[in-house]
Write a structure and sequence with these properties.
single chain, alpha+beta, Conserved Hypothetical Protein Mth637, Chain: A
Length: 104
């Protein structure tokens, strides 16, 4: 069971997200308890059809974190509500940025 909603690795952050598709708006909700531990909640307007919600999630996280979409990769959960995103970059800077975004 995970005790954090992200995991730092060299030059990459793994971010665990519970995605709700077909929402009123695209937004990052904050942390919440998931079946395997803490996750970051997110909602997107796109429907869960042919990867549309996954693409919308990557676009949302790109905008939210201020990183290029090309630096975000869906590692697992393509057909699940629980996703693992790999975000390439300086792990320490990304971890600090994520925590700051959630505390402001």
């Amino acid at each position: 069971m995970r005790d954090n909603y992200f995991q730092e690795k060299p030059n990459v952050i793994l971010l665990f997200i519970k995605l709700t598709p077909n929402a009123r708006r695209d937004e990052v909700l904050g942390t919440m308890a998931g079946a395997d531990g803490l996750v970051l909640g997110a909602k997107v307007r796109a429907i869960a059809d042919k990867g549309k919600a996954n693409k919308a999630l990557i676009a949302l996280m790109s905008k939210w974190l201020g990183v290029a979409k090309s630096k975000i990769d869906l590692k697992s959960g393509s057909k699940s509500r629980i996703k693992t995103l790999a975000i390439t970059g300086d792990s320490d800077e990304l971890a600090t940025l994520i925590v700051e975004k959630l505390t402001n």
